Amino acid sequence: xxxxxxxxxxxxxxxxxxxxxxxxxxxxxxxxxxxxxxxxxxxxxxxxxxxxxxxxxxxxxxxxxxxxxxxxxxxxxxxxxxxxxxxxxxxxxxxxxxxxxxxxxxxxxxxxxxxxxxxxxxxxxxxxxxxxxxxxxxxxxxxxxxxxxxxxxxxxxxxxxxxxxxxxxxxxxxxxxxxxxxxxxxxxxxxxxxxxxxxxxxxxxxxxxxxxxxxxxxxxxxxxxxxxxxxxxxxxxxxxxxxxxxxxxxxxxxxxxxxxxxxxxxxxxxxxxxxxxxxxxxxxxxxxxxxxxxxxxxxxxxxxxxxxxxxxxxxxxxxxxxxxxxxxxxxxxxxxxxxxxxxxxxxxxxxxxxxxxxxxxxxxxxxxxxxxxxxxxxxxxxxxxxxxxxxxxxxxxxxxxxxxxxxxxxxxxxxxxxxxxxxxxxxxxxxxxxxxxxxxxxxxxxxxxxxxxxxxxxxxxxxxxxxxxxxxxxxxxxxxxxxxxxxxxxxxxxxx
Length: 496
Ligand code: BES
Ligand code: MN
Ligand code: ZN
Prior knowledge:
Elements: E1 2-6, E2 11-18, H1 26-34, H2 38-45, E3 55-59, E4 66-73, H3 82-94, E5 103-106, H4 116-130, E6 151-155, H5 160-184, H6 192-200, E7 208-212, H7 214-220, H8 223-229, E8 237-244, E9 253-263, H9 283-297, E10 303-313, E11 324-327, E12 333-336, H10 343-358, E13 362-367, H11 372-377, E14 382-386, H12 389-401, E15 406-408, H13 413-416, E16 426-427, H14 436-445, E17 454-458, H15 483-494
Parallel strand pairs: 1-6, 2-4, 2-5, 5-6, 9-10, 9-13, 12-16, 13-17, 14-15
Antiparallel strand pairs: 3-4, 7-8, 8-10, 11-12, 14-17
Helix pairs in contact: 3-4, 4-5, 5-9, 8-10, 9-15, 10-14, 12-15
């Protein structure tokens, strides 16, 4: 789908804005006048509220160069921001992508908090994110199931500024698409070796990619990571993606991702119903990979290293057993009481490796770590845990601005105690149903060195959605959650 910025012209469909209460914004007003009031009439006929996503369709109106006028609500104009415009454009795409129309014209207006050229750029970003599909494996789609839209034109008087910004935002789109594709891929296609192979592509953007194989992980002493992997015929990988974009070489920020390409639970096996969703248990690694892609593509002036731990958690003949005790790279030992609490085991070695090898200024890990975070926060917020106020605040702000919100949850010694073990330095579950997400975070924290700013983002509820897909910017099952947040965090806190 082609996105162009234009100053005028026609098309199959035009989308314009209306505010809550049904007031037409300037572009809609102009069309209303040109069609002899057809739009206001249609609005009354269906009790159009103008709430975000509400739409009226005026078909085959006379007096304009379009066969369909789509009026889409944006809610209260005074509280609209860039994300509102993205969602507005997303709704327009959703209603036209497979409609038979080939060309959609978006006519965004300036809003109290969004200039016209910002609105144009956000419209472009929203349109592209909303046009995502994962249908490469569908060989028998009927014509009406296939996208018909080939071009989106964004009408603005002086399009240069919006065009420049949209070119920058292309990095975000590529990063989010990359992450969504990785999360959506089935586990027979995407397993540690093939995941690592896909990350090699980042070399073309100037990212230094290193793939560590099991013999090396063994030498490094990563017994926790290898313990999870040992039940699978698909051996583990640990991949580092190094982007040195700052003018001076220096300590990087480390982004660490949980990459369980499939989580059966291992010997502590999961119930059959819904297990297919566990192909997405590498959503943290996908977010890190997507963010690295965005950061490199826009040539961010920052030093960032992405590290993903890739394993498949299977109950094979050599699988680890409940009660096994493993040695981590940090030297600490773990009693594995539940093989389904595997994410924290691989993160233990991955975050330690990150600190040992790169001496990062901060460690931020993303993981689909606990079902409990869905109980707490549903699919609206990811769970944030941090030992550093400044870092936590920056993550909160980045998530809010990019439509990937987080909600902070506490840490504390009382929770930490819950994973003490009589048989090893710690156990990997508390054995109690209380505070499951916090306990997972406390476990990871045991592998963070004193003085290292660290944040853990539990994205079990946000890496994919149970559907129906209400967010127009995320039309498929995989959301790509985390890419935009991390990219913005780097831009706002770590870039020169
Ligand atoms: N990958 C799961 C967490 C998960 C659950 C992600 C649902 C997305 C949706 C994780 O490895 C896991 O199994 N966690 C256990 C931890 C428990 C054994 C302490 C869980 O949440 O039940
Ligand atoms: Mn698990
Ligand atoms: Zn898992």
